[in-house]
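# step 3/5: fold
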Amino acid sequence: MKLEDKVALVTGAGIGIGKAIALELAKKGADVAVNYLKSEKGALEVVNEIKKSGRDAFAIRADVTDETQVKNMIQETVGKLGRLDILVNNAGVIERTPLEDIKIEEWDRVMDINLRGPFLCTLYAGRHMIENGGGNIVNISSIAALNPDIYMGAYSVSKAALNMFSEVTAVEWAGYNIRVNSVCPGPVETDMIKKAFNTPELLEARLKAIPNHRMSQPEDIAKVVSFLASDDASNITGEHIIVDGASSRSMYFLINQLSK
């Protein structure tokens, strides 16, 4: 499972899951463009760590919802690293609000970052890949795309749409030798999950709902992304890979827990 001489772009790579993905891809041999919007310090730390490992990397600030910035980001990645083989659409946002209380601005923000962003990055990265013989795109989705997640209406809808976008792109671009897959994590131990479940009681309840009682670590997700981006997954496309400790299969487990 090697990625020597490949070039990857990871969005939202200054913190959390994105950071782990960028480091894992570099560990497997890829050069990496480290995208960020607000976490410049984290992005520069990722770049330094990658360079210490012997791979090339640079940090690039871009708002994935802005078409001009995305277009420039793709061009700069190709200009600095020579090509673009792997795109990981990781940048995302989560809001926990009852549907009846959600503000239109909040809904639009979630849809823009979680759906418009991957669309724009895929569009411009994909055009480069089509011209250069193929590539790999991995979208970071969520198990909230597969089951309605209470008080996360905008988030669930955005991730469900992202999964369908992955499927459509995989089918349309298969003839260009471009593979497209989604990774659907359950709860991952990051600042984002702590914000969504913003009290110790909520966080503990979410942990108890996982059959193996373990939240994923960012590195768990990164290793799956690395596999999907490699030739070891050469005939896997249009799929959604769940990484959640059986959380999304846990209805009867929860019934048993609640009956105690």
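# step 4/5: annotate
Strands lie at 7-10, 31-36, 57-61, 86-89, 135-140, 178-185, 240-243.
# step 5/5: archive (pending)
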